[in-house]
């Protein structure tokens, strides 16, 4: 009964986001992530990630990329902090040769905690960002709840199929304070302890001062974790 209710909630979230969708184009987000996981035995960890986005499916009309990474510290296997930084660049896909339209440098601090509800893993992530967008400084605050469910095994062991669903809200300290919302549903496969691949759908809603819009995207992600001698419990959660 619990799993039935879980999947019903997931379906309703995805359906509601689709109903309120305004864009008739579907973009593509591609992510490649390298992780050095932390644990109670190895407190320090980190990650690096490269992300590219296109305006249409199958990676057509490239317009955006991110290069980012961070250093993490584990208080225990279910709570850790991270300091990250990244570079975010946007182009006009119709004329890539004229260079970036906008460039952003970002620094952020975040805290993540994990709780268990039967086989479902709930991840709560709190993030504060300092942003330099084309020379203009901005602050932003984000909260994400991510539910992960291993389907054919009780844990995220090799050869496990799993589901990952999250919702994330973005706020800033200037009006309008509510800036953005992301809803995402991914189906993943854990090939080995180190390697997993995830694919699915993500909708991003942007709330502007004069106009609001949203866009559906297909997401494809490859994640590789460097294995340590005494690894802690690892969740295949998206780092973005």
Q: Output the CATH class name.
A: Mainly Beta
Count structural domains. Answer: 1
For the biggest β-sheet, the strand order reads 1-2-3-4-5-6-7-8-9-10-11
- Count every helix, treating DSSP H or I runs of 4 or more residues as helices: 1
Measured distance between first and last alpha carbons: 32 Å
What is the correct CATH architecture?
Beta Barrel
Order of helices and strands: HEEEEEEEEEEE
Using the coordinates shown, work out and report the CATH topology: Porin
Overall residue-averaged pLDDT value: 89
Oligomerization state: single chain
Helix content: under 10%
Apparent shape:
globular
The biggest sheet, with number of strands, parallel, antiparallel or mixed sense and barrel status, is: 11 strands, mixed, barrel
- Number of E strands: 11
Contiguous uncertain segments of 5+ residues: 2-9, 11-23
Assign the structural class, choosing from mainly alpha, mainly beta, alpha/beta, alpha+beta, or little secondary structure: mainly beta
The radius of gyration over CA amounts to 18 Å
Structural write-up:
It is a single chain. This protein has 1 helix and 11 strands; from the N terminus they run αβββββββββββ. It has 240 residues and is mainly beta. It has a single domain, classed as Porin (Beta Barrel), CATH 2.40.160. It has an 11-stranded mixed β-barrel with strand order 1-2-3-4-5-6-7-8-9-10-11. The N terminus is likely disordered.
Give a short synopsis of this structure.
The protein is mostly beta strands and 240 residues long. Helices cover 8% and strands 62% of the residues.
